[in-house]
């Protein structure tokens, strides 16, 4: 029996909606995005509902995530980044929960789709650009032409800097989507081999469990990388060199 390992990435409409010839159906991807928001909101609300002096497991985990993101912001952005904590925290939780929920059997990983990760990355770049202009005004353009550079050098430097600036969105989106895509394909391929072995598949089953743990670690790592790079880009917008 052949197994299509790419079937798990297929976006399928759940509630078909068409407006003016445009397909805006509520899909499995949208469902898991909503599930991510619900799960993270319920978890954080339940964890912090009692606010005990001696925290329980859920409260300790919630406080750990809070302190982790707060420390990331302080280390990479400084005190000026404190006001952007809600946005960075929400971004981290959205990516992390999307990655982790996508590992459950028969689920959907929306962070494996470039359209989703590109939208997130473009949102980050747009945000830091707005912050840069709001903080420095027209002086933010020095990002693309460092002070003291010869005027003739602008012909070469400015296009390169503009390209590299917006290429950040490409690198952010591709890195996250590619890692989620490859990891899930690898798990599906190995699982198909094990199912084909029948009883003998018990032995290599331990291997796929190990791969699952590794993929879970990669999911957390990719959420961290996406968020810390967003913090670095925010730092560059706030503190021009």
Q: How does this model look, in words?
A:
The chain has 241 residues and is mainly alpha-helical. It has one domain. It is 67% helix and 4% strand.
> Which stretches are low in confidence, meaning pLDDT under 50 for 5 or more residues running?
none
Number of strands: 4
Give the termini separation: 59 Å
What would the average pLDDT be, to the nearest integer?
86
Q: Report the total helices.
A: 6
- Calculate Rg over CA atoms: 22 Å
Q: Can you tell me the overall shape? A: globular
Task: Kindly state the percentage of residues in helix.
Answer: 55-70%
Report on the biggest sheet.
2 strands, antiparallel
Q: How many domain modules?
A: 1
Q: State the oligomer.
A: single chain
N-to-C order of helices and strands: EEEEHHHHHH
Report strand order across the widest sheet: 1-4
Strand residues, percent: under 5%
Going by helix content, strand content and strand pairing, the class is: mainly alpha
């Amino acid at each position: 029996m052949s197994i299509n390992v790419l079937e798990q990435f297929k976006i399928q409409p759940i509630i078909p909606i068409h407006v003016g010839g445009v397909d805006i159906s509520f899909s499995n991807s949208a469902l898991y995005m909503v599930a991510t928001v619900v799960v993270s909101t319920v978890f954080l609300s339940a964890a912090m509902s009692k606010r005990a002096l001696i925290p329980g497991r859920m409260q300790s985990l919630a406080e750990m995530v809070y302190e982790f993101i707060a420390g990331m912001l302080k280390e990479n952005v400084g005190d000026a980044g404190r006001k952007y904590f809600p946005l960075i925290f929400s971004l981290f939780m959205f990516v992390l929960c999307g990655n982790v929920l996508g590992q459950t059997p028969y689920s959907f990983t929306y962070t494996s789709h470039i359209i989703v990760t590109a939208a997130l990355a473009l949102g980050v770049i747009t945000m830091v650009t707005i912050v840069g202009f709001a903080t420095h005004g027209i002086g933010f353009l020095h990002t693309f032409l460092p002070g003291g550079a010869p005027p003739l050098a602008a012909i070469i430097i400015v296009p390169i800097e503009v390209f590299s600036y917006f290429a950040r969105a490409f690198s952010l989106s591709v890195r996250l989507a590619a890692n989620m895509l490859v990891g899930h394909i690898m798990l599906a391929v190995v699982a198909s081999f094990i199912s084909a072995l029948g009883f003998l598949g018990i032995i290599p089953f331990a291997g796929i469990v190990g791969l699952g743990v590794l993929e879970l670690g990669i999911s957390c790592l990719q959420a961290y990388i996406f968020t810390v790079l967003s913090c670095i880009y925010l730092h560059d917008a706030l503190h021009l060199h």
